[in-house]
Amino acid sequence: MPLGFSLPVFGKAAATPGGIARYAREAEKAGAASLWVGDRLLSPVAPAVPYPGYETMPEEFHTAQDPFVALTIAAAVTETAVLGSSTINATQYQPANLARTLTSIDVASNGRLLPGLGIGWSPDEYAAVGIPMSERGKRLDDLLDLLETWWTKDVVSHEGVGYAIPETNVALKPVRKPPVHLAGFGEKALRRVAERADGWLPVWSVPEQFPVDMVTSTLAKIREDAEKAGRDPKALGVALRVNAAPGTTPEDIAAAVAKMTELIDPDHTFVDLTYLTGSVDEHLDLTGRLLDLTAKG
């Protein structure tokens, strides 16, 4: 089964000079089908809302690379791997700048970008960028409108939430329109996936933290709602992230990957290595072991 991995954008490996380029190059050479980034702007000492499952913030987030820089580096040193995000907190960025950045990365990678977008959960991060957290839902809808225009029209104008773009020439277009995947389990978020997205970004944890039917039933509901909205439910993609707790064995991770890919048949599956390794060498070693295990079935 095709398997991808997170780039070293968090933790000690993220601070390694040249680490992202080295990992991306060697992981693709080893057989990684996709390479992924997450997005963390702040790791507050006393967060207004702790990270889910923690009393504060995981130590790994004390060191965080810019996701767009990481994707650009990976685009420059790889040739075939899909370059994805799960998840960029899209509504924390100025929309026109974000549209230009995503387009540039897609062109740099020759059409390999899979932008996975979400709205985040941290009040501290929204305060840091000066954007009202209460507007994040309507800002995401607005961003989706802008991306559609930016990627399909040569002259773009847009009245957005808190900004306006006059008629302007946008000649730089993606190699192919990037398939925007959206994250979320809430009712509004899932409706947005069904009605507007190219795919969904589910998450699975090892060890299991919730029943598997939370994923399977949610995916079925998304596809049902997509069909009601006049869309082809089979055209909705699925990019599954597998999170593994510290100390989880490669064998347990491989077993979880096999189980979930059989149940939901995702288009992309990747293992988030953030909590499993501390160095680029360890990233690469675990990548090789997981590729071997999944190849053996």
Task: Describe the protein's architecture and organization.
The chain is an alpha/beta fold and 297 residues long. The chain has one domain: TIM Barrel, CATH 3.20.20. It is built from 9 helices and 13 strands. It has helices at residues 19-30, 67-77, 95-108, 123-129, 136-152, 187-196, 213-228, 250-264, 280-296; strands at 4-6, 34-37, 82-85, 88-89, 113-114, 116-118, 155-159, 164-169, 181-182, 199-200, 203-206, 237-244, 268-272. The strands form 2 sheets. Strands 1, 2, 3, 4, 5, 6, 9, 10, 11, 12 and 13 form an 11-stranded parallel β-sheet that branches. Strands 7-8 form a two-stranded antiparallel ribbon. Helix 7 links the parallel strand 11 (203-206) and strand 12 (237-244). It starts with a strand and ends with a helix. 42% of the residues are buried. The model has no long low-confidence stretch (mean pLDDT 96). One of its GO terms (molecular function) is oxidoreductase activity. This is TIGR03619 family F420-dependent LLM class oxidoreductase. It is an enzyme of class 1 (oxidoreductase). It holds the Pfam family Bac_luciferase. It comes from Amycolatopsis melonis.
Describe the protein's topology.
Layout: E1 4-6, H1 19-30, E2 34-37, H2 67-77, E3 82-85, E4 88-89, H3 95-108, E5 113-114, E6 116-118, H4 123-129, H5 136-152, E7 155-159, E8 164-169, E9 181-182, H6 187-196, E10 199-200, E11 203-206, H7 213-228, E12 237-244, H8 250-264, E13 268-272, H9 280-296
Parallel strand pairs: 1-2, 1-13, 2-3, 3-5, 4-6, 6-9, 9-10, 10-12, 11-12, 12-13
Antiparallel strand pairs: 7-8
